[in-house]
């Protein structure tokens, strides 16, 4: 006899484990299946968390190397202990994955190790590491399998010299020359890490700008700052092959439209051209679900076309963000329990953890122009922010976009110190349909970086006043 559950979740990443925890809190008998040895999915194991540990450590290393002396801090010889840096990263990952396991137990969720697949209506089969199969029955099945690295045709990943983000967080030594394929969020974060630690980093991007989905003004400013830091960009170009036969890798590139060939030397090539939904061996055909040509499973408030089957996170439509998956997981569990789960997709922030950080929420200027929507703009530079000046963090700005008639905040874009923290204020304001004046009239502590957000909001009506 198969064990019966109210909810069986396939995938233990941010979407899956949050869905499981919330379902457990709501009194539903729940199981969460994860094929990794540890919970947390890509985010905790090889994505968000380990990369942020390396970003933080490498920032401190560069700060000590380049800026301490200017602040009157004198040190002895500075050395990089890469093995120890990797060790503290691994410790952070271990602690957090164990924490997720504790939360599942606390909320009476069964954690089942193995690969799950749907085997018809209300049935899930789990195959463990030894090949043993166990069948579960479920009133509701939630697909939370996340995404995987998108491969680049003509380039074979060997995991050592030609790597993806999964391996780039664990290189054994600092490559002298690193070629990064793709100027998106993940690539620029990891490229920044290795550049700070001593690599010569060249970024090859098919599009004519970095971070193509970002606000255009932010993208241009970011490129200038990254170049100032030492990153080299080759935009409007594509990689056609990587020759691994010699001691030095030979990366063949050409113009995006063809021709104009150029070969780059590299010790390591990092392929970061995006991610794709993970649906391999999921058994979707057994319940009549057919993903689109990109592999995306459609949903209507997280319901799929199959009765009793739900979908959340990277494997369905929308931004591939851990916090988006978390919100969907929570809302999906609430819908299953008969409650009114909700996600406001217009107020989901996006953060790039480079230096300086880049954060956005809502619409870009380009999107508003495309929609034909009248808007007003307020902008404030960190150069004019008191805390930014005292902390020697003056690069970047805050930009707030508001409806020209109602003053409702439509979007915000920040490039500068602690942008990932500062954007939360605007996301909250947008959740409550606030006007830019609501932020402008709210008292902010002085001196803080958050005052730059207030001043940008003031700028929507043209009354910025702080230096």
Write the layout of secondary structure elements.
Layout: E1 3-10, H1 14-25, E2 30-34, H2 41-46, H3 48-66, H4 82-106, E3 109-113, E4 115-118, E5 123-127, E6 133-143, E7 147-149, E8 162-163, H5 165-168, E9 177-181, H6 185-196, E10 200-205, H7 216-229, E11 232-235, E12 237-243, E13 249-255, E14 262-266, E15 268-271, E16 275-277, E17 309-311, H8 322-336, E18 350-352, E19 357-362, H9 365-371, E20 375-381, H10 386-390, E21 397-403, E22 409-416, H11 419-431, H12 436-440, H13 451-460
Parallel strand pairs: 1-2, 1-6, 2-3, 6-17, 8-15, 9-10, 9-15, 10-11
Antiparallel strand pairs: 4-5, 5-6, 7-16, 12-13, 13-14, 18-19, 19-22, 20-21, 21-22
Helix pairs in contact: 1-8, 3-4, 3-6
**Gross morphology:** globular
Ends apart, CA distance between termini = 71 Å
CATH topology of the largest domain: FAD/NAD(P)-binding domain
Q: What's the number of domains?
A: 3
Count of β-strands: 22
Percent in helix = 25-40%
Number of helical stretches of at least 4 residues: 13
Q: Report the CATH superfamily of the largest domain.
A: FAD/NAD(P)-binding domain
Overall pLDDT confidence: 97
The largest β sheet comes out as: 7 strands, mixed
CATH architecture of the largest domain: 3-Layer(bba) Sandwich
CATH class descriptor name of the largest domain: Alpha Beta
